[in-house]
Amino acid sequence: MQKGDMFVGWSTKEDIRKRGGSGGLVTSVLAAALDKKLVDAVVVLRKINEFEAVPVITSDVNEVLKSAGSLHSVPSNFAKIIANKNLKVALPAKGCDTRGIIEQSKRNAVSLDNTFIIGLNCGGSMHPSVTREMLEIMYKIKPEDVHGEEIEKGKLIFETKDGKEHAITIDELEEKGYGRRESCRYCMIKIPTNADLACGNWGVVGDLAGKATFVEVNSEKGAKLLQNAIDAGYVQVEKPDEKGVAARAKIKGAMEGLGKKWKDKVFVPMDNRLEYFRKELEHCIDCGACKTVCPTCSCGDVSKCTEYHLRGDAYKMSMYHLIRFLHLADSCIGCGQCSDVCPVDIPLTRLYRRFANPMQEQLKYEPGMDLRKPPYFEAKLEV
Amino acid sequence: MANVYSTICPGCNFGCGLYIRENGNLDVDFRKSSPANSGKLCRFGMSLPRLYTPVRSMVDGKEVELTEAAKDAAKRISASKGSVAFLSFGNTTCEEHLAFGKLGEAYLCTGADFEALPKDTYQTISVGIPYSEIEAAKHIVLFIDPYEQYPLIVRRILSAKKKGAKITSVWWKDLPLADENLRPADVSKLKLSGDSLVIADFHPLSDMENVKNVLSLAKNAGARITFLKPFANSTGAYILSKDAKQKSLVQLVEDINKGAIKTLFCLESDPGEMIPAETLGKLTTLIVQTGMASAITKKAHVVIAHEPLYKKKGTLINNEGRAQSLGGEGTRGLDALGVMAGVKFEFGVLNESVKKTIGINSIDEFTIPKYDRPGYAAPQASVKPVDAKTALVSVFNPFMWFGLPDDNDFVEMNLNTARALKLLKSGTLKIRSNGSAIEKRFKIGPVQENVLLTGRKFGIEKGMLTPVEISR
């Protein structure tokens, strides 16, 4: 097995296949890594209900097995969970998790040699509060009655406890202000080729559709991780159907096209930018949550954005925000975590991307997609 | 590998859900499915690792086990029968509060001055309206600074504004979210209607004439009114104490000063921020039962230390009346109260009693129980005008209630006032009151002339509003 290989695979354990999404391969790869001591710990979501789960670092194989299943309404980011822990760890990661982890490694807070990243294809995640409201208003079902969820052929499908499926197109939901978080809509990383493995159901066709995971091996570490799961008897794989490979590429292309459309729609050029930023930030209460949650920030308590900022200052736009705009111009990965946690609903990701989009395009630098240092770290960017 | 607790922020009665992660240090994590706050936290919520500092049980400065401290406290309470007061602001679970009510029924103090208000206003004060109603309001009138005092209400108000609501502020400074800014002295210009929703707050240091005044204004206009409150379970404490004879903080201070109260038992409450130090110094015995260290635990003769709030098992009731379960398993607080009361408090029995009181069968944070919302007669109020050329106004916020330092060692003032005093940029301002003098940095803001706003206790204050003299 080597970098560039592609497979379709599934868990050998029936209960994981039933509980996990797409044949339970990811859960089994994580469990095998722990079982065979390839890693000290893994990160999983401890599920509370369909709309809530909490990320935990665990060495308990049973906890890993229990975590099986996808949760589109839990928009977490694992990068900071593993930062500064000095652990040999494996974890599932969406594109934005992976980008955050890679950025943390550039800042010496994560060792990539000790981190096995199982990338998850991602069309976007939803905020749980928005999802609950959407279920009641758009689907006319009680959130407590939901048993499972799936995204298929552009539709968001909820299965209720009575076995019925309720489907509405994502386009219709998003037109009404529901559906995916804004940052997910314009995200362009649908298949995380920056992770050690890239896994998902796109490209699984024929009899295996819905029962297996398509895996792309992106690194030697990824090959080691998958081979370990096969050798340990947790996972079975086979070569993918050519039609499947083509279908996967087609879905990726379509999703990226949609992302581009959203990007153009959200980031309409504007005049009076200073007034726009000042107005958006006028409700800021200085909580610092946006910095705390930012998966690319590794400064800790002592950082430029906080050291130069005093609450007693009366600037129309605080030094905290000005410094963060500068910092994130080359480092923002557009994950949306800052907007999620802002207590006064400032669309922070949109503001940061207003700086980051032109800067990153001009410098041909996508943070978290490779190991190049941020341009502002270097005197001259290696292109 | 790390313990993760689903909990509620103790900073105020808003009911913000979060996770506390024990991982060597404490970290906060965002519980995005929480109905009150969607996982969002204010500056104080983000500071919780600083608040939750470990505490140990002590008797006269000597470290002991919890049970020993509780037994010692029981002896002291028994020895000073008739001169013991029991204080709990509402920083603990409903179950503990019920047990506490049984222990301290002879002299129960939640800090609130309900005796100064007509009885028919009790429920309106105790249980606020759902936040969804705030978002749906057409006209919101603020008698608070939401940014400083109850930050998570800001997004609800902004949501209402996006839908077309008009926002009026009656405050000492202009608020960015307000369409209309009135000063407190100009409250007579306020135009309320049946579409208006008044947001005020209620706490142990509230000026009762102001509370009565906003109740009257709302009642006379047919407007709705909701009172925000500063302690995690203020609503629960008030609902569960409804039939108890409650003493106010003012009464407690008076009784300590005249020697009628010699022993004070504080449950998860630090009165040091509200009761003058000389008054506390007159007590012969101070007993503190708590889950975290604070200034008051250093002064106490007996400290009964149990688990912090995030590790407790129990129910909190937020400002909307939403019952919320804490995610911990700890009941050591109940055990200690049982030792002092001479009975064993069963969590299950108390929990059932809480549910019965609020008329629910199970604790479901996503459903707000149906509360009686009785009408009230407009109370007579006699608000006194501010009798001072310059006033220092305390803007009470969670950092102040908990005595937790914050980056706010300054006063906010008007540019014209600063110019009249010829203050220098980056300089300081001298503030004098009652023979005390302090020197503080100042921040220029859209504040009423001759008013200084502070979100920190400087030690010269006399209530919410302190007449001061200022100079360069």
**Distance between the terminal alpha carbons of chain B, to the nearest Å?**
56 Å
Estimated radius of gyration of chain B? 22 Å
Shape of chain B: globular
Helix content of chain B: 25-40%
Strand line-up of the largest beta sheet of chain A: 3-2-4-5-9-10-1-11
Strand order of the largest sheet of chain B: 5-4-16-15-14-6-7-13
Verbal overview:
The complex is a heterodimer of chains A (383) and B (472). By secondary structure, chain A is of the alpha/beta class. Chain A has three domains: 195 residues, no CATH class; 52 residues, Roll (Nuclear Transport Factor 2, Chain: A), CATH 3.10.450; 110 residues. Chain A has 16 helices and eleven strands. In chain A, the strands form two sheets. In chain A, strands 3-2-4-5-9-10-1-11 form an eight-stranded mixed beta sheet. Chain A has a three-stranded antiparallel beta sheet with strand order 6-7-8. In chain A, helix 2 packs across helix 9 and helix 14 crosses helix 16. The longest helix of chain A is centred in the middle third of the chain and has 25 residues. Chain A starts with 5 loop residues before the first strand and ends in a 21-residue tail after the last helix. With 472 residues, chain B is an alpha/beta fold. Among the domains of chain B are: 153 residues, Rossmann fold; 82 residues, Barwin-like endoglucanases. In chain B, 26% of the residues lie in helices and 25% in strands. Chain B is built from 16 helices and 24 strands. In chain B, the strands form five sheets. Chain B has an eight-stranded mixed beta sheet with strand order 5-4-16-15-14-6-7-13. In chain B, helix 12 links the parallel strand 15 and strand 16. In chain B, helix 2 runs parallel beside helix 13. The longest helix of chain B has 14 residues. The termini of chain B are far apart. The chains are: A alpha/beta (383), B alpha/beta (472). Chains A and B meet through strand 2, strand 3, helix 6 and helix 12 of A and strand 3, helix 7 and strand 22 of B.
